[in-house]
Amino acid sequence: MFTRRHFLRSSPALIALPFLESLGFRRFASAAVPAAPAKRMIFLGIGFGVTKETWYPDVKQTGTDYTLPPGLAPLARHRKDFTIVQGLTNRYSEDAHGGSTRWLTGANAHEGGASAHNSISVDQAAAAAFGKDTRFASLQLNGSDKDLSGPGHGAGLSLAWDSRGKPIAGINSPLAVFHRLFSAEQVPLDQLRLRMTQKRSLLDAVMVEAQDLQRGLAKNDVEKLDEYFQGIREIELRIAKEEQWQSVPKPKAPLPQPPDGRSGVEEIKLMYDLMVATLQTDSTRVLTYRLPIANLLTSLGVKVAAHDMSHYSPGERMEASQKRDVAHSELLAGLLDKLKTVKEANGTRLFDHSTVVFGSNLSTVHNLTNCPTLIAGGGAGIKLGHHLVASKDTPLCNAWLTLLHGSGVNVERHGDSSGLLKELAA
Question: Using CA atoms, how far apart are residues 290 and 45, in angstroms rounded to an integer?
Fold first, then answer.
């Protein structure tokens, strides 16, 4: 038998042969440990809340031994893998028609005297940490309702708000999402580079003009100009990211191109499939989806208008609200199924490294307390399979801060958070 020294003397042999345990390479072979899979986060906003009587578990039944209410019944097969949290509130929320505007921010709407102030959303706090190694720092998806910024979700262009509290636009078509993720760029690379150069030249000229203008401005104008400069810096970062990925081909799509024109239930199914494909190809690690409301009801055969449904009382309106809840749970169960099916490089499930949040800033009718909150997945290392009831006036942002910390994003605070949600931590 040759010794390990004999084996190493021949460089061609080193290239041609595998590491053979019988020649003493057992220790080296076992030393190669696959890198830990990346953390991912998904936020699903439903706008108008839920049906109080049939979605929330009984507050007297906490822990793992609770009765799953009818609104959550389709999630029974995933019961051990999600947790319901009651008692959370965004204390500064005051828009009884805005279930999404400050859901992920917890901002004081009038801080500093501003007429419509917001702050960074939790998804963007995660994207700042997770987005450095992916083509897209985050992706924002929207339902195809004609006016998602109306009653239900409230103001905004998606669920996401940037570091200045400005809305981030979302994509409202599964087909458009598919092309954004997987369709090859049609513009030649040299033209793309020229575009980037032109953008940078324009930004440079704008910055020079703005800096000249800064001299002699009043205090309020200086503050406005500072905000403007911050916006320019964010544009520069986006341009830098585009330049970084110009020459990198987009991944091959792991699913067929979706049909155009779908709405309601079918639209949500397609968006959920695209979310899984996005994470599977590591195109981004942070996703938000502002779900359709009116189109969902229409696809379920519900004749009651979305706003009328939100003012439910026993009868047709309440039945519409309950039907909506069950449909959401069925669709969410399907998403969790898919996340559990996809395998990571180390053999674990995509689900084990993802955090999925489902909920709204509104609880029921136009009530802004007890925000419905369902959290699934192993990405943040939280307590799963539980029904938790937080103490009175616990900020919803305590849950967001807990998820961030559990995912390795150790920010000091988020929104109006007062600390970690200890009940949620494993």
Answer: 5
What is the separation of C-alpha 248 from the centre of its chain, rounded to a whole number of angstroms?
24
d(CA 349, CA 357): 18
Tens digit of each residue's pLDDT, the chain (426 residues): 455 445 444 444 444 444 444 445 444 444 555 678 999 999 999 999 999 999 999 999 999 999 999 999 999 999 999 999 999 999 888 888 889 999 999 998 766 555 567 999 999 999 999 998 999 999 999 999 988 887 799 999 999 999 989 999 999 999 999 999 998 765 565 665 666 566 656 556 666 656 665 666 666 666 665 665 666 566 656 666 666 767 788 999 999 999 999 999 999 999 999 999 999 999 999 999 999 999 999 999 999 999 999 999 999 999 999 999 999 999 999 999 999 999 998 999 999 999 999 999 999 888 999 999 999 999 999 999 999 999 988 999 999 999 999 999 999 999 999 999 999 998
Q: Helix-strand-coil percent breakdown of the chain, rounded to 5?
A: 40, 10, 45
Dihedral, 167, 396, 360, 286 alpha carbons, nearest 10:
50
| Cβ-defined contacts of 411-419 (< 8 Å, 24+) | 411/125, 414/106, 414/122, 414/125, 415/90, 415/105, 415/106, 415/107, 415/119, 415/122, 416/90, 416/91, 416/92, 416/106, 416/107, 416/108, 417/106, 418/394
Supply the pTM of this predicted model. 0.84
Residue type at 255 in one-letter notation: L
